[in-house]
User: Fold these one by one.
Assistant:
Number 1:
Amino acid sequence: MNLKKYEAVFILDIRKVDDEGEAFSKELAELIKSLGGEMLESVSMGRKQFAREIKKRKAGVYWNYIFNLDAEQTDQLRTKFMLDERVLRQLVIIYDRPEQ
């Protein structure tokens, strides 16, 4: 397995998550673990207002994740949450921030 470091941002629908996304976060961590990866960091960035509505919503809960995962498994991750009604938007990119 060739693990790469990824960063992901998820915007969750306020009406579909009742705990600010804590349960969603645990679920994502378990999915990554089951795909052979590891969650390094998960940070809630709180509720934010949108500049434009997304799916008739004016605000969402933002979460930032950093994790290691096999490159081939990231497609599975994206596909699963593309169909999830709690997720308004998602972005998964290769983590390339310089180390301090």
Number 2:
Amino acid sequence: MATSSEVKKVVLAYSGGLDTSVILPWLRETYGCQVAAFVADLGQGPGELAGIVEKARKSGASEVFVEDLREEFVTDYLWRMLKAGAVYEGKYLLGTSIARPLIAKKQVEAARATGADAVAHGATGKGNDQVRFELTYMALAPDLKVIAPWRDPRWTLTSREAALAYAQARGIPVAQSKKSIYSRDRNLWHISHEGAELENPANEPRPEVFVLGPPVERAPDQPEYVEVEFQAGVPVGIGGMRPGPVGIVEEANRLGAKHAVGQVDLVENRLVGIKSRGVYETPGGTILYAAHAALEALCLDRDTLHYKHAAALRYAELVYYGQWFSMLREALDAFVDKTQERVTGTVRLKLYKGQAHYAGAESPNSLYSEDLASFVMGKDYNPQDATGFIHLFGLPMKVRGLVERETQQAQGGAAKRRNK
């Protein structure tokens, strides 16, 4: 942990919420240093960043940086994750996990630009985000000092009431309205919900949990179709439009949320060893993942597709664990990019009651042959060829079966002789 005398200027990852609003002046008072606030616009939603510069300055920030990172977030992070097919523990599309390395990277760049010698974050000592932020700092700026207030023994603001009192005593503007009973994180890709009744895995989520779309039972009774167009594994169009990367995610979100697509209730294994329960809404991401997987099924051969599925599990762990800036992730990207060279085409999905159902796909690189798939035998498939193939393919199993049969017969004969 850095000492107060060692830090002259720190760049804080600042969201404008209660925690970072009190962390900012706490850093100034505890470390006696200048504090610059870094704000990342990742598509948190309308109004969330309104007035944030003035608020940071009133809290004591010497400088405030606000960067619109939505385009970079989509093209350099989400699209890479999508092409890899990364899903954590079968359900989580990694909306919070994938955002943290980008925020930390830009935070480091702000520190370099302003001559800061330290960076800070507001992640608690119980969650995954502390790891994601700090692994990025270590990879990109190992010389910078890292301040994690929630792990600092001098940090005493461990309740909302204490934080509010601290802010009010210093004239720091904080929202006075009743706090949501849920802890939420939102960006262009998803929104997460934790806390309240969700802390008990025996409880069903209340309808008011959902923010982006209705609960599935209230979704429209009529399905809606959408087409997603890909070029080398990257979404380039949706619904006949080409609105750009951010626009594609926004339109997929709009359609998916309307039909309650992408609502996931998950008990997950955190990196720090704790099981946690959360509800996620990832409507657009779910649509794009489903479309991408359908196109890969057409365009990739069996061995490549199966190996890619195995690599996707490891890729998801790297994202979840905060190891984005690792050599392994870069190496896996090279493999993924090679597999995606043929993944071009259009997929049609039917959105209905929380699901994105496959409704057809076309690709100039499709490996699907109607002639071969047909029940009618054609010139390219001689059924007699299967006889030798099956014999050789199953030979190890046959040998084992013969050995076991001989062993059983021998044991049976020995038993009969003993009984005589």
Number 3:
Amino acid sequence: MAKAPQNAISPTREENFPEWYQQVVRAADLAENSEVRGCMVIKPWGYGVWELLQQQLDTIFKETGHKNAYFPLLIPVSYLEKEAAHVEGFATECAVVTHHRLELQDGKMVPSGTLTEPYVIRPTSETIIGAAFARWVHSYRDLPLLINQWANVMRWEMRPRLFLRTAEFLWQEGHTAHETAEEAMEETKRMHEVYERFLTDHLAVPVIAGEKTEAERFPGALNTFTVEAMVQDRKAIQAGTSHFLGQNFSKAAGIEFESREGKRELAWTTSWGVSTRLIGTLLMAHSDDDGFVLPPRVAPTQVVILPVTPSPSTKSPFSPPARNWRRD
């Protein structure tokens, strides 16, 4: 009796889905754990997927009027303190820089030079981008302000999983400021729809789009809209979010402008983002027990199979030689 063919990945999805996921990442040579706990090395094949995701999303963002900028990795603690709900939501995930040099003592490098004010390695950039917006916005003519940043962030993670949950990860974060609440909400929903279409049309991943409950909202937001990707273990992965921030961050950062009526008003702001979690989402949605499967739009290497079939009147060079058969 012939043996059943062996699967390339062991265990299979049905046997142990979390371990199957880890094995697919390793087998596809996408990433590996680094020496820094909770952080990963994204290898060339995995980074190639991210580059394609980035290029396609960046094109969409620019088509919708957004421009790219870059903001500091280090955020003064005092900036976070200005928005109480925000800092409370991220307080347990923050990595804090407290010294600015190292000194050799007894053969060991010891931190020294205590900073006057500690810095947080950005878990997200609302506060420091808000400070920039406060410098840039003076009049209603400066609005809307539509900015996107491609960057890395750090959120201390106790139970890391490659691509899905790591202490440091890559992402984009959009930040916008508007003249009215209606315009800001329209922007929030527009980018929510962009994420929904991108996952559906570019990544071929089924999603459920909707609004988060009050308890699940982004810290400091009035509304959070999400796209929840459906994967093969019948669970959902939060694949992208878009937040209506109201005037909370404008009030904290002082993002004010002169209105059409000549009055001083606070801007209405939004933020939205997706991350390298999309690669883990792709893996969980499309891969099988033989390994990683990618939709063509985000595959770093494209393979095209072109069948060549000769017409009946054309003799193929691969045809066997003609034989004259006779029966004696």
Number 4:
Amino acid sequence: MTTRPGPVPELSATGGTAIAAEPAGAFPPLKLGAIAVDPPVVLAPMAGVTNVAFRRLCRIYGAGLYVSEMVTARALVEGNAKTLAMASFGDDEPVRSVQLCGVDPQVMGDAVRRLVNEIGADHIDLNFGCPAAKVTRQGGGAALPVHRRLFRDIVGAAVAGADSVPVTVKLRLGVDDNHVTFIDAGRIAEAEGVAAITLHARTAEQLYSGRADWQAITRLKEAVTSVPVLGNGDLWEASDALSMVAATGCDGVVVGRGCLGRPWLFRDLADAFGGRPLQAPPSLGEVIQMMRSHVGMLCDSFGEDLGVRQFRKHTGWYLTGFPIGSAIRRSLAQAGSLAEANALLDRLDPELAFPPDAVRIARGHTNGPRPVHLPSGWLEAVEDPTPPVGGDVLASGG
């Protein structure tokens, strides 16, 4: 697939609900090069989740920037089939957004050029925030900004390889409380020409535990003045996004776990940023229709067997808080076919109201804190620009 001609399309809100505390027009679009993200809302890449089917489902409910799962630069350059499939897009996707992870500047530059010239990517996000042990023990993800010169070289190579396509970076606060890197990394990325910087306001050691430190987003916004800063962490409902913007001055929000099992969150966010009143949450009947749509899209994208297996983990997220009993939950989490999944959904009571307390129940990862796995001597040789040996051969995926 080649790069599409003409300007990158603008994103715009497509209906939804919002909080009238701010007048319409109070929140300008997020500008990433030629891309205007309106409302200023980004779907965070999540392994095994943000594939083409989930991105399509979320877009039904509201506009925003919808980013692919993380793919590995080396695997992309070497033409790994699984990685190329993960970096593919539907014909209906208005902006092709890919997240890359890598530890070698040359490989990163080559991967970015392939994404732009062969796959037609419109936006590339660099992952320097992943806390997964299989990534950090190779010096990647949240471990990499410790090595400032290597970090600079990788970001610079990506920006150069992307030409006019905007490159953004996603950071965590640092490895742990004793190795905080986000301010230095943000300034370096800004100097290398990135289009925006996202901060997940936790350390890698925290994983997903505790509370995100929104004050750190404020400090990054004060330190980085020429490009947008986006906030990520503890965004469970639309009011959280408005609160984060008001508290930190950030230019947009990145939503991860809050939308798991709740794709209509993007409808609420579109309206919140547009100054419109929020709609009522869906009944179980409406959630069932979302589930049917989701599993159908997964089967269309990956075939029935893999599509249904990918859908299983979503069933618990969709049904969080609903009083439906453990037996049917287990059955849905073990469904072996599309017909079986739909038959089980037929058994649910569509009249059940959405349980208000379920909005803020964490879905997805809740683990942490945990010591961060790093290459031997990683915290000592922080000025070494050499890529870690064996660190750029990871396969993509969670």
